[in-house]
């Protein structure tokens, strides 16, 4: 499976490394035309306002909405999760408005800006190592969203059909099982969809 990583800003090389460890082929996506060549797209962590601004500038908002609308898998991590959300807490404008959830940015406060923990994630048999950096939280989800993990009672991993989102950075450890899960989503899509 060829998995693209949106390469406008943020942790791109780290995701490509995890994709390859998980058995996929990783490519940096810098142009909308590249979406036609990939089996799944990861939107990395970084700074969501910057990523959103660059996505608008380079035509990625409509292109990714269309890509996801066709059933292609899209995975947002940290800032990427913020970018996927339909609703953001506060006065902020949402970006892709793809996933039926409300997200709060920088939700852990200054005391706990970054930390690592082991998380139970549905579909992964033993706890996953997760790195949180100025992480967002999913405050509320619609009926079609499946919660895959919680941390201290707050939602930090969720899936809605072909969309996957994590509050944390799964690409900063050697534990690449969430990337494996995403590659499986891309494989399932490949099997059910004729004539990509
Ligand atoms: N705090 C960042 C934001 O709001 C996200 C941080 C991250 O991606 N590690 O965009």
From TrEMBL:
InterPro entries: Class_I_gatase-like (IPR029062), PdxT/SNO (IPR002161), PdxT/SNO_CS (IPR021196). GO terms for molecular function: glutaminase activity; pyridoxal 5'-phosphate synthase (glutamine hydrolysing) activity. Keywords: Glutamine amidotransferase, Hydrolase, Lyase, Pyridoxal phosphate. PROSITE patterns: GATASE_COBBQ, GATASE_TYPE_1, PDXT_SNO_1, PDXT_SNO_2. GO terms for biological process: L-glutamine catabolic process; pyridoxal phosphate biosynthetic process; pyridoxine metabolic process. Pfam families: SNO. The active site is at residues 78, 169, 171. Pathway: Cofactor biosynthesis; pyridoxal 5'-phosphate biosynthesis. CDD domains: GATase1_PB. GO terms for cellular component: cytosol; glutaminase complex. Its EC number is 4.3.3.6, 3.5.1.2. L-glutamine binds at residues 46-48, 105, 133-134. It catalyses: aldehydo-D-ribose 5-phosphate + D-glyceraldehyde 3-phosphate + L-glutamine = pyridoxal 5'-phosphate + L-glutamate + phosphate + 3 H2O + H(+); L-glutamine + H2O = L-glutamate + NH4(+). Catalyzes the hydrolysis of glutamine to glutamate and ammonia as part of the biosynthesis of pyridoxal 5'-phosphate. The resulting ammonia molecule is channeled to the active site of PdxS. In the presence of PdxS, forms a dodecamer of heterodimers. Only shows activity in the heterodimer. Belongs to the glutaminase PdxT/SNO family. This is Pyridoxal 5'-phosphate synthase subunit PdxT. It comes from Cohnella cholangitidis. The lineage of its organism: Bacteria, Bacillati, Bacillota, Bacilli, Bacillales. The gene is pdxT.
């Amino acid at each position: 499976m060829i998995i693209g990583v949106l390469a406008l800003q943020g942790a791109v090389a780290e995701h490509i490394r995890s994709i390859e460890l998980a058995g996929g082929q990783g490519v940096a996506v810098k142009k909308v035309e590249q979406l036609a060549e990939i089996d799944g797209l990861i939107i990395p962590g970084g700074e969501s306002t910057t990523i959103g601004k660059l996505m608008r500038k380079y035509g990625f908002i409509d292109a990714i909405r269309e890509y996801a609308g066709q059933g292609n898998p899209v995975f947002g991590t940290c800032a990427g999760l913020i970018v996927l959300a339909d609703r953001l807490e506060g006065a902020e404008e949402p970006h892709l408005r793809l996933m039926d959830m409300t997200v709060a940015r920088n939700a852990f406060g200054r005391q706990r800006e970054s930390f690592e923990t082991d998380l139970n994630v549905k579909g992964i048999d033993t706890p996953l190592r997760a790195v949180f950096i100025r992480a967002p939280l999913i405050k509320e989800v619609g009926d079609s969203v499946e919660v895959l993990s919680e941390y201290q009672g707050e939602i930090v991993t969720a899936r809605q059909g072909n969309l996957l989102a994590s509050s944390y950075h799964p690409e900063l450890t050697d534990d690449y099982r969430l990337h494996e899960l995403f590659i499986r989503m891309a494989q399932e899509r490949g099997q059910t969809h004729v004539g990509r």
